[in-house]
TrEMBL record:
Record keywords: Cytoplasm, DNA-binding, Sigma factor, Stress response, Transcription, Transcription regulation
Function per UniProt: Sigma factors are initiation factors that promote the attachment of RNA polymerase to specific initiation sites and are then released.
Compartmental location: Cytoplasm
The organism's place on the tree of life at top rank: Bacteria
Name of the protein this chain belongs to: RNA polymerase sigma factor SigI
RNA polymerase sigma-70 region domain location: 25-94
Record family assignment: Belongs to the sigma-70 factor family. SigI subfamily.
InterPro entries xrefs: RNA_pol_sigma-I, RNA_pol_sigma70_r2, RNA_pol_sigma_r2
Claim: Cytoplasm is one of the keywords in the record: yes
Alphabetical list of Pfam families matching this protein: Sigma70_r2
Composition skew (Basic and acidic residues), residue ranges: 118-129
A GO molecular function held by the record: sigma factor activity
Means of activity regulation: Negatively regulated by the anti-sigma-I factor RsgI.
């Protein structure tokens, strides 16, 4: 009971202070990795498994959305991590062109497509896509470092409300239509917040509050991050459809 009260105290502090949130998330990284491992049925590999990043974002979401009515914090966080990982995999399956190897082959429900393929070709396309995605994420991570931004920063700085996400999308669209905004970002290594706000109509406080998230968003549209852009378009499309 005392331990739970201490956790709740840390959650409240993390909700109010970004540095406290970083410390809290760092302290519970073993827990986050363990929950991710339960889902993957193997230990997650940092820098390789997107699921670990999804779990970290879900843990931060648990911090922001927790209340005593939800019961023990870690149980709530574990439930949210599992839910977000399931959502992620469903979206990946829905938006990818790779057909599940468990899909029945024709009228024979006892035989899957995987059974009809030769072992040497079963996962070649999937592995190629995963490797290309990994390389893009590595390149983006290195580029973000020159702006003083990490993937953890982006996860922590990601808008939680749909209205705010829609505002960020509005600012992104303005930048895409005005390449000089992206050029200034690369040249100065600073987010041209004033020009973005003036041109898109987004409030300045929204832009400043989610500065690191917006930097990552704009960087994705300055180079050849086609795979990441494809995923981003699906996320943004989901925001507008809600």
């Amino acid at each position: 009971m005392r331990e739970e009260r201490d956790i709740i105290r840390q959650v409240k502090a993390a909700r109010e202070d970004m540095q406290a949130a970083d410390v809290f998330i760092g302290t519970y990284m073993p827990f986050i990795k363990a929950e991710t491992a339960k889902f993957l049925r193997r230990p997650p590999v940092e820098g390789h498994d997107d699921e670990l990043s999804i779990a970290m974002i879900a843990f931060h979401e648990a911090i922001c959305g927790y209340s005593a009515a939800r019961g023990a914090f870690l149980k709530y966080a574990a439930m949210l991590i599992k839910s977000r990982l399931i959502d992620y995999h469903r979206k990946e399956q829905r938006h990818s062109k790779v057909i599940s190897l468990e899909t029945p082959a024709g009228d024979d429900e006892e035989k899957s497509l995987g059974d009809t393929l030769s072992d040497g070709k079963d996962h070649s396309e999937e592995m190629t896509v995963r490797e290309a995605t990994r390389k893009e994420i590595e390149e983006l991570t290195e580029q973000m470092k020159t702006f003083g931004v990490s993937l953890t920063d982006v996860a922590d700085n990601c808008p939680k409300q749909e209205r705010t996400l829609a505002s960020c999308r509005k600012a992104l669209n303005y930048a895409k239509e005005n390449p000089e905004i992206l050029e200034e970002l690369l040249r100065t290594k600073r987010l041209p917040a004033a020009k973005l706000c003036q041109g898109s109509g987004v409030e300045r406080k929204t832009m400043e509050r989610h500065r690191k998230y917006m930097i990552a968003l704009l960087l994705i549209y300055t180079n050849g991050y086609e795979i990441i852009r494809g995923h981003l378009k699906q996320v943004m499309k989901g925001v507008t459809e809600r």
